[in-house]
Amino acid sequence: MGQLNAGIVPVTPFQQNCTILFDADTKSGVVVDPGGDVDQILSAIKDNGLTITAIWLTHGHIDHAGGAMDLKDALGVDIVGPHEADRPLLDNLESQATRFGLTGAVRNCVPDRFLSEGETVSFGEHVFKVFHCPGHAPGHVVYYNEAAKFAHVGDVLFRGSIGRTDLPGGDHAALIASIKEKLLPLGDDIGFICGHGPGGRFGEERRSNPFLV
Predict the structure, then answer these.
(1) How far is CA 163 from CA 92, 148, 172, in A?
(2) Is residue 213 included in any domain, yes or no?
(3) CATH number of the domain to which 30 belongs
(4) pLDDT tens for each residue of 168-182
(5) What is the pLDDT of residue 195?
(6) How confident is the model at residue 178, as a pLDDT?
(7) What is the full DSSP assignment across the chain?
(8) Are 112 and 69 in contact (CB under 8 A)?
(9) How many domains does the chain have?
(10) How many CB atoms lie within 10 A of CB 104?
(11) Burial class (CB in 10 A: 0-12, 13-18, 19+), 66
(12) pLDDT value of position 105
């Protein structure tokens, strides 16, 4: 099994971290949260000689899922995740886009498979456990690879901050519970990539994040 690698393609005016997770040896992998700018994502895949086997979504907000259907069409792969509680968000991506003035570049998204707490997803020999972490969005999921001590946390947790909870379906208490009861117990040494900005380690957030201390 090759090393688990990650590359980030910032997409959309929201500068969302569309993430390509891939095996260093086989070059197979998945795209997490293709929010838009699909041509840029496809260029990164081609330039690095990668074979994408699936699209994984953390949640149903426009900057994370807006380009998923176009990327699915281009690659011929399934869309996996998030939790079914985000179906209403995915059904209304086009109306979300209208509110942000992003018409034309976004399509409503129909995942091939929704995910539940405790399931696993994988590519090659890299296995990720699924955690349902509501609060930022009702159906938000986090992908955790124990072997690599790595998590993709989407918009649940940021370096020095947490996901916003003032959007439809947001719940501050639920978000804090998701972080403190599901993520932090995984260990201080877990590194993470998040939906916006730089990643970090759970231990540093546990010690210094003003929303968690």
Answers:
(1) 20, 24, 9
(2) no
(3) 3.60.15.10
(4) 899 999 999 999 999
(5) 98
(6) 98
(7) -PPEEEEEEEETTTTEEEEEEEETTT-EEEEE---S-HHHHHHHHHHTT-EEEEEE-S---HHHHTTHHHHHHHHT-EEE---GGGHHHHHTHHHHHHHTT-TTS------SB---TT-EEEETTEEEEEEE--SSSTT-EEEEETTTTEEEEETSEETTEE----STT--HHHHHHHIIIIIGGG-TT-EEEESSS--EEHHHHHHH-TTT-
(8) no
(9) 1
(10) 7
(11) buried
(12) 77
Say how far apart CA 95 and CA 80 lie, in whole Å: 22
Q: What is the pLDDT of residue 102?
A: 75
Token reading at 179: 């972080």
The single residue listed with the structure tokens 């509110």 is: 99
Q: Looking at the domain assignment, is residue 83 inside a domain? A: yes
Ranges of the chain with pLDDT below 50 = none
